[in-house]
């Protein structure tokens, strides 16, 4: 690839082996690869499973057709019917591409993410990198860092290091991913405010339909924002006892950046029901 094209080939054979291993490929799997620039990985996937390439980099189509004869080429997510994904998410489009993958509902993903971006995915509550992206990822996937990948593993060399991460789908109680993301994203705009203060301000920024916004506001007004009576008011006594441990963590006078993933899920489900 030409220098400056944004296309980088993985040339590290050990890295390719790790990617294939952690994808846990079966013959019945349908794998998506975004961008279509990782021929060496794609060839190995083709040997074990069905492969679809979403071509986002212009000028690769003819090369893809020549190099990957068994692979299906598509141009949009609407054409995809895959249960797993491997993607090398470049530094330039980390946020947008990652969110598309997150919303697609894969059962397993192995992604190469820029090191700085990966820190947002792996962050813990209370740290500066902790964000809406962290909460979204942790809600829907078990996340495991596999290995850090330096720029020498690519040709041409990348300008920054990357991290190989495995994402495995987990059960969750969120029915509408996009509404949940709007809820969390808006709250993190006021990450240093306590929840009860941040919510009214965040509601104004949420791209939700009017009915959902009114429902959240109405439920919030009915709820006293304090830790002691929250679960008693919203659950029966049995449920309260079962949720006692969670109730200790659930602090409505807690700052947004200190709330855990489970807190955001429970708040969203409570206020939007």
List keywords for this structure.
Helicase, Ruva Protein, domain 3; 273 residues; 7-stranded mixed β-sheet; elongated; Rossmann fold; two-stranded antiparallel sheet
Describe the SSE topology.
Elements: E1 9-10, H1 13-23, E2 30-34, H2 39-48, E3 50-54, H3 61-67, E4 72-74, E5 84-88, H4 94-104, E6 108-114, H5 115-122, H6 132-140, E7 141-149, E8 154-155, E9 162-169, H7 177-187, H8 195-205, H9 210-222, H10 230-234, H11 237-242, H12 244-249, H13 261-272
Parallel strand pairs: 2-3, 2-5, 3-4, 5-6
Antiparallel strand pairs: 1-8, 6-9, 7-9
Helix pairs in contact: 6-7, 6-13, 7-8, 9-13
Can you characterise this structure?
The chain is an alpha/beta fold and 273 residues long. It has 13 helices and nine strands. It folds into two domains: 161 residues, 3-Layer(aba) Sandwich (Rossmann fold), CATH 3.40.50; 96 residues, Helicase, Ruva Protein, domain 3 (Orthogonal Bundle). Helix content is 44%, strand content 17%. It has a seven-stranded mixed β-sheet. The protein has a two-stranded antiparallel ribbon with strand order 1-8. Helix 6 packs antiparallel against helix 7, helix 6 crosses helix 13 and helix 7 packs across helix 8. About 4% of the residues have low confidence.
